[in-house]
Write a structure and sequence with these properties.
Elements (H helix, E strand, L loop, with lengths): L1 E5 L11 H15 L3 E7 L10 E10 L2 E8 L6 E4 L2 H4 L6 E2 L2 E2 L3 H19 L5 E5 H14 L4 E5 L7 E2 L4 H4 L12 E2 L2 E3 H8 L2 E4 L2 H6 L10 H5 L6 E2 L25 H16 L6 E6 L8 H13 L2 E6 L4 H13 L4 E4 L4 H10 L2 E4 L9 H7 L3 E5 L2 H6 L7 E3 L4 H15 L2 H13 L5 H17 L9
Helix pairs in contact: 3-4, 4-6, 9-12, 10-15
The structure holds adenosine-5'-diphosphate (ADP).
């Protein structure tokens, strides 16, 4: 079984959020099951020229241009890199200074179109195209019209839909006739994710709860009706973690934390982290590693801050994103020296030191498709306090290995943190909480098996011979 992933990010090559973790690790788990999985993504500036990257000496033709293709096997499987310097040779991935690039239609339109052409260029035709988020959703439209391979579209976050004016159609390589509600049109505009949902052979998302939530008006971001009308409900396959990349006993960025004796490993990491961030080491330390976005509820933590500080909790936040949220956190760090630290950057090693050095880990999201940070926190012995939404409720168990609150409300957040602080105060209770969390199986094994079944189903149902409109 040959599967081509097409995505905008892939760890460790280029990462903005959890999408990269998934596209960089699920293919490895599928590879262990005997599948031949490869990926295509843009050759962004940040990994040129990267070691072990070779030009194929071949180019792929799409949307009226010829683009050279490079290959790297660094993630542990073949990744093809699409070179178009006018589009991808820039400082940012999606944009700069909180603003998306104005030509993201052209940038991702090309990527989606190339996903269909790559097979011929490299002499390797996929049995299934696995698309991720709006950036590559248009490939489903191309595949359906041209008789390409069957497609699976995974929605990693329904809030980002790739909405463009009708004038973008040529840049996207899509004809005017597709601007109809049955394909791409949504409120008079081009909506790539909607087009993907309606054109993919199967649609899925990244946790069982989010799969149900997105079919409701509260979480459907205007597309719940479209999702409810699908012949089969969206799949909800829980994300896994690459357990080698997230191993607290062997992570070179942190002092080892071992499940047999988690408390001593945690103490060493906390001491170092507090020194690094200029925090007092006495209080309970709550960590956060997150994009600064409304979705993530970082403002709720600011509202709850007086109660958290009163309860003897300090906070360390690592994140970048919304400038207004960043300014508010900068002010909080200034107002509470030694108790609140804010690092406004993207830093994988610091993220690891926060997972390892914090006692608690806050994920108060308003919605959360799956969420990886709470799973990483559990593995690194940082007790998660999460809101029950999407994948957070599917992965954290109140009182067993973490603490869960119901509504996006600062008082409920503070209460849940209070329960956690109470539990951590007792060393025997704390050890059990940590050991239960560290023992959880967040490997890809089960979910890779589900994806494998889905691919097999798609191939079984695909019309034989290809060619022509499906
Ligand atoms: P999302 O994809 O919505 O941003 P996830 O919880 O699924 O959220 O995944 C976030 C991933 O990105 C995690 O691996 C987390 O460690 C990482 N991450 C987020 N912000 C930063 C940052 N500022 N520095 C380093 N890693 C970050």
């Amino acid at each position: 079984m040959k599967v081509l992933f097409a995505a905008a990010e892939l760890a460790p090559l280029v990462k903005v959020g959890g999408l990269a973790d998934v596209t960089g690790s699920l293919p490895l788990a599928l590879g262990r099951r005997g599948l031949d999985v490869r990926a295509i993504l843009p050759l962004y500036r940040r990994f040129v020229p990267s070691e072990g990257t070779t030009g194929l000496g071949r180019s792929v033709r799409a949307l009226g241009r010829e683009c050279p293709v490079w290959r790297t096997d660094r993630p542990g499987f073949p990744v093809y890199l699409l070179q178009a310097d006018d589009l991808y040779d820039r400082p940012g991935v999606y944009g700069e200074g909180g603003q998306g690039y104005a030509d993201n239609d052209r940038r991702y339109g090309l990527l989606a179109a190339v996903a269909l052409e790559l097979g011929e260029a490299i002499g390797w035709e996929p049995d299934v195209l696995h698309l991720h988020d709006w950036h590559t959703a248009a490939a489903t439209v191309h595949a359906r019209r041209r008789g390409g391979p069957p497609t699976l579209l995974t929605i990693h976050n329904l809030a980002y839909q790739g909405v463009f004016p009708r004038e973008s159609l040529p840049a996207l390589g899509l004809g005017e006739e597709l601007l109809v509600p049955e394909v791409l049109e949504h409120h008079g505009q081009v909506n790539l994710l909607k087009g993907g949902i309606l054109s993919a052979d199967r649609v899925g998302t990244v946790s069982p709860t989010y799969a149900r939530e997105i079919c409701t008006p509260a979480f459907g971001e205007g597309l719940d009706g479209v999702l409810r009308a699908l012949p089969e409900p969206p799949l909800g396959i829980l994300n896994g973690l690459d357990l080698k990349r997230w191993d607290p006993a062997a992570d070179s960025a942190v002092a080892p934390i071992r499940a047999a004796d988690p408390l001593s490993g945690k103490a060493a990491n906390k001491e170092r982290l507090c020194r690094e961030l200029g925090l007092k080491s006495g209080p309970v330390l709550a960590g956060m590693v997150t994009r600064l976005a409304q979705q993530k509820g970082v403002d709720l933590v600011l509202q709850a801050l007086p109660q958290l500080l009163d309860a003897g909790v300090s906070v360390a936040l690592l994140g970048e994103g919304d400038p207004a949220l960043a300014a508010a956190w900068e002010a909080a760090a200034r107002d509470h020296p030694g108790r609140v630290a804010f690092s406004r950057t993207f830093d994988d090693a610091l993220a690891r030191r926060i997972y390892a050095g914090s006692d608690l880990f806050l994920v108060p999201s308003r919605f959360e498709p799956c969420g990886l940070t709470q799973m990483i926190a559990l593995r690194y012995g940082s007790v998660p306090v999460v809101r029950r939404t999407g994948g957070l409720g599917d992965t954290v168990r109140e009182g067993e290995d973490g603490f869960v609150f119901e509504d996006p409300d600062p008082d409920q957040l503070a209460e849940a943190v209070g329960r956690a602080v109470g539990a951590l105060a007792r060393e025997d209770r704390r050890r059990i909480l940590l050991q239960r969390g560290m023992a959880r199986d967040f490997s890809w094994d089960a979910s890779a098996g589900r994806y494998h079944e889905v691919y097999e189903g798609l191939v079984r149902c695909a019309p034989q011979g290809g060619g022509g409109e499906r």
